[in-house]
């Protein structure tokens, strides 16, 4: 089943992560957030490494129909959505508010680069 609503997708992702053991009851919230921030950093690094090696458009190493850049970006978003649910955030609301704010910011946020 393809889910198109981001909050519903976050719910499904979080449920799967819980079922797969990524939310141990003994792990405190601070440790969870710390681990997930490190894991998200790892996904960004894997995406960058695929670009540096020129492999971003090659088939990923899983038996799925995604290239490397699609897989790594998906992993990053999956982890972020899982964290949003663990923290009980309305991620759609947060994204919309932040996007509206970003639209009011100056070109390149006033920076040179």
Distance between the termini: 42 Å
The H/E string reads: HHHH
**Helix content bin:** 55-70%
Mean pLDDT score: 92
β-strand percent reads under 5%
Q: How would you summarize the topology of this molecule?
A:
Elements: H1 6-19, H2 29-52, H3 68-86, H4 91-103
Helix pairs in contact: 1-3, 2-3
Q: Mind explaining what this structure looks like?
A:
- Helix 1 packs across helix 3 and helix 2 packs antiparallel against helix 3.
- The protein has 113 residues and is an all-alpha fold.
- The termini are far apart.
- It is 62% helix and 0% strand.
- It is globular and about 45 Å long.
- The model has no long low-confidence stretch (mean pLDDT 92).
- The protein is built from 4 helices and no strands.
Question: In short, what is this structure?
Answer:
The protein has 113 residues and is an all-alpha fold.
Q: Any key phrases for this structure?
A:
single chain, 113 residues, mainly alpha, 0% strand
